[in-house]
Structures
1.
Amino acid sequence: MINLVWFRNDLRVDDNPALFHSMANASHGTVAVYMLCQQQWEIHSVGINQQALIIKALKNLCQELEQLNVPLLILDAKNFTQVPELMSSLCSSLSVKQLFFNIEYPVNERQRDKEVVDILSGQVDCIRSIGDSLVPPWKIVNGDGNGYKVFSAFARRVRVYLDQNPLVVLPVPKSKTKDNLQLVDDQHLSIELPTILPLVEVMPDISEKNVLQQLNNFVEYDVRAYGETRDIPSIAGTSNLSAAFAIGSVSVQRCFELAQQHAKKDATTWLNELIWRDFYRAVIWHYPDICRGQAFNKVDRAIRWANSNPALEAWQQGKTGIPIVDAAMKQLVTTGWMHNRLRMVVASYLTKNLFMDWRLGETFFAKHLFDYDFASNNGGWQWCASVGTDAAPYFRVFNPASQQKRFDPEAKFIKCWLPKISHHSAKDIQRFETHPLENYSAMQVDLKQTRRQAIEVFKIAKQS
């Protein structure tokens, strides 16, 4: 009997429920499959950087599975609509009796999975597991049975759930015998992985060995200071695990478990961030229209967002005349990553000062980030634009000038990414609003004036 394990955004062997359970029965063979859907990547705005990272992760996964004597088939599915027929054909040719996979939460993925289950009905048992969140989103609901809209209430419920249902973090499965590798042959049409070159020079090392080492170092030495260091962009104060989270080369449950073991209460701030990740997954599960480009808050429909290509391009190219914004955008396009504090700053600036549609920023991030994650990226952008669940109040507008004074007081980060103004003193850089810097872009807009205008527009929109 052959079990088939279907990999998606869970490209790991450690704490992978689908893989673990598919290999649990020693008398059953196990074959792995990944459906390569490059057209779907384009539909979902997955950028070249993350595409290249996924290919790299698949190569790593192939090696890890080979150590377990499990063959990995790569099938060219192009897009989600082709997956059900391909899966049915593969299950038939291999005489598969059980298909194992971890549940994904966005609406297109859910529809794809439903069609796979339907086409295999009566022939193949489909065993689904939770592998991309701390808790199943359908388990965390309010008194009315609906998903939470406010993070604090959601987080309290998650902690109660975890107290009552302790995490079960799974080890790497025991290897199959060598003959398991012979379960597939050339007739199964496994394709060669395409060559995709990233937009930047250096890709993150998301191999499981490296990521787990990073994780262990972080929870042992750095997580206690995370609450103080995470907002300072000039230092390495974060876990640097976001790209691994995004493509699934580390599990959130493994992270939560190790942080609790090593730091306990001292890890509260970071553990809270992991629960935020769950929150945004729960939001798209309970409110799937968000996956269709809609904002959660109807105020979004009452706002006439600006549509200025020159202004948008200046923001994208780091030529806004706002040092902290420009430095952050340079970091993004150069490295494929942006510090989280700065993601909020640049998002607030685009939506509240330039008054551009948050979807434009969401898409630009998706096209550049190695750690692009639809739920978290979308949730963050809607929060900053004050149109999402648990959103920032419309009158809360990040002031880039005060943000850079507070979190980059010596302008170390700014000077690193904007070398043309590095000869200026930190004091001069912090006075950019009243003392223009030579060799530097003029400010696109007046920060105070545009803040007042944004607040007034939102106030009117909320009353309509």
2.
Amino acid sequence: MNLPFEHIRMYRRQGVIKPVFIREPLGILDTLIAVFKDHREKKRGQLNEVVSDCEHLGYDFRMVRGIASVLESRSLFQSRSSIPPLDARRQVFTEAAASVVASKNERLRVLEAVAERNGLTVEMLEDNLYADLEDEQYLVDFNEPSNEELMRYYNYANMIALLAYSLRLEIRYSGSDEYLENLLKRIKTAEVSGTNRKKVVIELKPTRRLGQRASRIDEILSRVIALPEWRLKTNIKYPQRYKTVCTFEIDSGGDGKLLAVDRSDPETIIEIGLPKKKLYKYGDILVVDDLARRQGVTAAQILKEISEEGSKYIDLGGVLVSSKKHQEIEANLKTLNTLGEAQTYLRALGVGDFMAVLESFGYQIEWSKPRRNSKIYRL
């Protein structure tokens, strides 16, 4: 997962820059784990309010928000609605337009009429009206880490966010990882040397696509730190307006022991072939809000780039799919039975927020434990 860049914690001294690592389990780790546990089956908005309150417990608010981001990546949120929220709002507004609504009783009458037509209670209808908003999503599952695991996951996420501002990466490692080596071959500016002890140098240019840069560095380092011996040295210009380039070094024998990659979901390995020219810059399927969040830009900027590029997508309500891929995905989803199967399939297509894609194709979930065995179905 990528830590929001505004939550980076670092210190700089005499040309050296370092992420601020948590070095021992702190009380805030246990507190935030408990907050997420207590908010199962509650709305994201309620969870966010309590997380905000935790910022006043004496810890750096950036650390609190950063830890919460790690826990969010281990959480599953779902919109709950008996009828599509857009349809619910349309019916309510149409009903209200037929008469003057100037009091609570008149509003209640409108809601009762719409609820009765749809076989709902007024409470259920009101819960439906804005169920598509992020704060209205329910926390339906939370993969709880230990405080020690959370500490290491946070340290790694904080480091990756800072490394997105790198101008040069020098990585040395021992051991063999075919996937990593194929990955490095696809990077034009990467120079790889050595056999048993490899040295990799990657030259980078400043970029505004920090989320994309962080994801690529994460993909590399998540493999590197799993090797028995490694060392990283990098030049970092953070923030970008800062004139001085600083150095950062870390290795497996030192602070590297404070890091861990969160692998809460099973890893899907996809064979990497030779680079192919992409017909679509962002691929055949993308969740706009998720992509914008990962790249550190707004959804409007993503949509503007797509429009300027001239790519044609089918809009499924925040999920964009090429017409050719739409038919393929629709056909393949019909062959899947469980949430785990759908997750593996969609992750292989490069989808991060696979739940949003399932919902956009009209699928619902019959929850069970373990989560991956939950049944998916389409009404």
3.
Amino acid sequence: MEEPSTPGFRRMLQDTLSIDDYLLPVDVEYPEFSRRICRLLRELYQKGKKIIQIEPFLENLLDIHDFFSQGHSPGELKPESIQYQVYLAEREATKALINYYETVMSAPFEVTVKAIIGFARYDAARFRLRDNLRARALARHIKKYTSVFIEAGTIHYSLLQMLRQRLPKQDQVKPVFIPHKALRALGKKGHLYGPGDRLTLTYIFHPNIKSTPLQELLAARSLIYTKLIEKEELSADCKTFPHILNELACIRTANLLNWSDCDRLFTLIRRVKTANARQIVEDYLIRFKKIPRKELNAF
């Protein structure tokens, strides 16, 4: 599992701790999704599957928080330690994210785009370290078993490469994009890498690359995409994969926009709620891009 060791996890799997009690102290973004995952994990555990939580970066980060809460300072972390590497990566990414938050509500469009690019670079460095630490830990576990399924978000694509480098050549590592299977089940085509993900992946694999017009456009589109994407959990009808359809619609909409479109729209939607932002973008595409309403992607 792509998560740090959690108190009560084993008891939850063994059904000696209720799922709701297990999730109560855990900070989960999508509660219903988390409950369903826990039920699925229980079923797998009952069938004899061994389920392990492996996420060294986050485990080290939690340890650092505990270390600081006890009155210690960053200067007390050993420079050669993994914890210090995690601390630096998290500090720089967080600093860049705060700069973006301070910029996005009032700064000119071009300045905000630069802030997004700055954050993407530091976020990519954090992902590289996170994937590297996880690949090391996974490689040690994988050799114990004949077949292993590794949970990983699509942004962790470098993990695939790192695992292949660390495992024997006879071990096959095959990516399975579950969201794409969901799209095919719905008769849809497309990918689920938003403009911000594409930008971050560029810097994950090419950390020293200079900014290009394409990267600047991806950053500009990500400003619009972030305002369009659904923030709340959609669980009324999970069989239709509402989050995946929403992502696909927002990605397709963002891909219709050029730099000037993003500049105009950002001024209009930066301070409005998601529903209003969607309406403004839809009206803009009809008026200025001459796209018929019936051809627009439903959010």
